[in-house]
Design a protein that fits this description.
- The protein has 6 helices and 7 strands, in the order E-E-E-H-E-H-E-E-E-H-H-H-H.
- It is of the alpha/beta class.
- The protein folds into 2 domains: 206 residues, no CATH class; 45 residues.
- Strands 2-1-3-4-7-6-5 form a 7-stranded mixed β-sheet.
- Strand 5 and strand 6 form a beta hairpin.
- The longest helix is centred in the C-terminal third of the chain and has 49 residues.
Length: 268
């Protein structure tokens, strides 16, 4: 299990549902949760970047035209539900393919294809193409983020990446295209398809860090409020003690009682 290391700014994030030894490993301020660790067990406290499995939520959730066994939409063993819970609870961002059925299933509004953040319940959602950030394909992506303010803009619109999805919905469509002379489009490997460009990863991390900064600021503010309240109580106690001690009619035990009270706040 990775050590809990922090950035020079004192913030740490967790990367959930990531590939073993992928782009989130080896960063001193990121705690990566791959399949062996089971990200569904993550209980905080750090903000997150989530790449929950998308196979049962995407356009080919049923397995695609050549699938021998038809799958069940959304059957991901609770991965997306936990990812969204983590983002809602600790802040951060969740990434899924464009047109993910999980958005409708979990009540997240569909973002415009042209880009731009829109409100989504407790957070924000958008559509951005990873082709702008070094992915070989255009790889349109939906994001759901929970941050104190609207996240910074990405590069919106179509990227220069290749379109590597032929768009067939059935085996018959593919066979008809081949019969008509249409050549197969070179496909990405599984690793290439699931990979996250380092530059895009850094932008997702930046969203999670913004949530971490806010959480820390809230903690500091709460601590300051507590310290101020304790000081006010101590001041009031000292004033009351001074009044009682200065009153010659008060017995000596009053001084002892107030000294005990003051000791409580001094020790705190």
């Amino acid at each position: 299990m990775p050590d809990n290391k922090k950035t020079t700014n004192g913030f740490q994030i967790a990367a959930l549902f990531v590939r073993t030894d992928g782009v989130y490993f080896g960063l001193p301020f990121v705690d990566p949760w791959d399949e062996p660790r089971d990200a569904r067990l993550y209980k905080g406290p750090f903000p997150v970047v989530c790449h929950s499995p998308c196979q049962r939520w995407g356009r080919y959730w049923s397995g695609g035209p050549s699938a021998k066994v038809r799958r069940i939409k959304g059957d991901d063993d609770g991965c997306f539900a936990h990812a969204k819970w983590a983002v809602d609870t600790f802040g951060g961002v969740l990434e899924h393919p464009e047109a993910s059925h999980a958005w409708e299933a979990f009540g997240i509004p569909k973002p415009p294809r042209k880009g731009g953040w829109i409100p989504a319940g407790r957070g924000w959602t958008c559509c951005v193409e990873q082709g702008h950030y070094g992915h070989r394909a255009r790889k349109a992506t939906w994001l759901y983020a929970v941050t104190p303010e609207k996240p910074a803009d990405f590069i919106w619109g179509a990227s220069a990446g290749e379109r590597l999805d032929e768009g067939f919905h059935t085996r018959e469509e593919r066979q008809a295209a081949r019969a008509a002379g249409q050549k197969a489009v070179p496909r990405l490997s599984v690793v290439e398809n699931l990979s996250t460009p380092p530059l895009f990863r850094d932008l997702l991390i930046a969203i999670a860090v913004s949530a971490a900064q806010t959480a820390q600021a809230s903690t500091v503010k709460a601590a300051e409020k507590h310290r101020k309240t304790a000081q006010e109580i101590a001041d009031e106690t000292m004033q009351s003690a001074a009044r009682e001690v200065s009153d010659p009619r008060r017995p000596r035990r009053s001084l002892q009682r107030w000294s005990a009270k003051l000791g409580k706040y001094v020790d705190a």
